[in-house]
Design a protein that fits this description.
With about 375 residues, this protein is of the alpha+beta class. Helices cover about 25% and strands about 30% of the residues. The strands form three sheets. Strands 1, 2, 9, 10, 11, 12, 18 and 19 form an eight-stranded mixed beta sheet that branches. Strands 6-7-5-14-15-16-13-17 form an eight-stranded mixed beta sheet, sandwiched between helices. Strands 3-8-4 form a three-stranded antiparallel beta sheet. About 50% of the residues are buried. Its cofactor is FAD.
Length: about 375
């Protein structure tokens, strides 16, 4: 058997990679990791100071077991790091009850007996006057939901991985991943490393290393904006939970005041895909931001109508909005986690656990059938 530099190499140390490195090291594996930028950089999917955590899931109740374990691991990481990574603000879903996302939320809380409250239109308007609900819209408050801190979480997971012996190389770009018999070669600009298994967690950059992904994973910008409220106290976490809303085909989401100044607000599926991660631009003019400002005026009238700041991130979106998790076809020693389609960060810790299970045990206790990479015609190997 060929001698290797590590049991497992993790390529990409953002949301999923930092968690995978932590979980692998926690399981006792010899881990080496590579990140082309610094840890917790802003050129991927993890960022924006806060991200929603919701147990009652718009995408379907089948995600709840993953979310339940993710919440446990978020609290574990917060305790181990001594950092406030999770804020239990609750998460409020707003929409007409017959809409598919709201039906999925109700199915989530019913099938999995999640703690929740259902607010009829009058109760919704009375309890959360900050929102401007449309006629017939209800609210479902997921009381186990809240906010997670993305940059701090990535830093914390990487620190925990290092404390457990993982060797993480920052500012070290991987140029190729080459399966070779009983090991895999990880080629950087200056050196070739070897490992028994490689976990690829490179987010929107995945197409540069796994070429066959390009036809099935589209890179899209994620634009996040912050608005100043007229009354900051009305949007404090104890009065204004994280929220997600679908009205007239517009999908919006946001979080309470976490910085003492502003409410975070976003609109999904507005900006066109880009050719690749290197084509991301952060320069947006007033016209480009208009879908967000128009939505903020309509749905949260207590906010000053122009954002005080914005930022742009990106993620890889599969055609079915379901991630790719598993071994690459024809290359069992290369484990891919990609295509999280803008809703993976909340589950990052459990996906890190799954990456560790796949790399060390060859399988996972979670049902990953719908996420299998071979549902698309991915090419053999990396």
């Amino acid at each position: 058997m060929t001698a290797t530099d590590a049991d497992v190499a993790v390529v990409g140390l953002g949301s999923m990679g930092s968690m995978a490195a932590w979980q692998l090291a926690r399981a006792g594996a010899d881990v080496i990791g590579f990140e082309q930028f610094g840890i917790a950089h802003d050129r991927g999917a993890a960022g924006g100071e806060s991200r929603l955590f919701r147990m009652a899931y718009h995408e379907g109740p089948e995600y709840v077991p993953l979310l339940r374990r993710a919440r446990e691991l978020w609290l574990d990481l917060a305790a181990a790091s001594g950092r406030p990574l999770f804020s239990p603000t609750g998460c409020l879903s707003i929409g007409r009850p017959e809409l598919a996302p709201m039906a999925n939320v109700r199915a989530s809380v019913t099938e999995h007996q999640l703690a929740h409250e259902i607010l009829d239109p009058d109760e919704l308007a009375a309890r959360y006057p900050q929102h401007s609900p449309a006629e017939g819209e209800i609210g479902i408050l997921d009381t186990d939901g809240g906010m997670v801190r993305p940059e701090l979480a990535v830093l914390s997971a990487a620190r925990q991985a290092r404390s457990l012996g993982a060797r993480l190389h920052e500012h070290t770009a991987v140029r190729a991943i080459e399966p070779s018999g009983d090991h895999v070669e990880v080629v950087t600009e200056s050196q070739v490393f070897t490992a028994r298994t490689v976990v690829v967690t490179t987010g929107p950059w995945t197409g540069e290393l796994v070429k066959s992904v390009v036809d099935h994973v589209t890179v899209k910008p994620i634009v996040l904006t912050w608005f100043a409220p007229d009354d900051v106290t009305a949007y404090a976490p104890d009065r204004f939970p994280a929220f997600i809303r679908d009205t007239d085909g517009i999908h919006v989401y946001g979080s309470p005041v976490m910085d003492g100044v502003s409410v975070k607000f976003g609109v999904a599926d507005v900006w066109d895909p880009i050719d690749g991660a290197r084509d991301l631009t952060r320069d947006l003019d007033a016209t480009a931001l208009r879908p967000v400002t128009d939505a903020a005026r309509r749905f949260l009238p207590g906010l000053h109508p122009d954002p005080i700041r914005y930022d742009v991130y990106m993620d890889g979106y599969t055609t079915d909005r379901t991630p790719l998790i598993g071994a690459l076809p024809g290359a069992s020693s290369v484990i891919l986690l990609s295509g999280f389609s803008g809703h993976g960060f909340k589950m990052a810790p459990v996906f890190g656990q799954i990456a560790a299970e796949l790399a060390l045990d060859g399988g996972s206790g979670f049902d990953l059938a719908r996420m299998a990479p071979d549902r698309f015609a991915l090419g053999t190997g990396a």
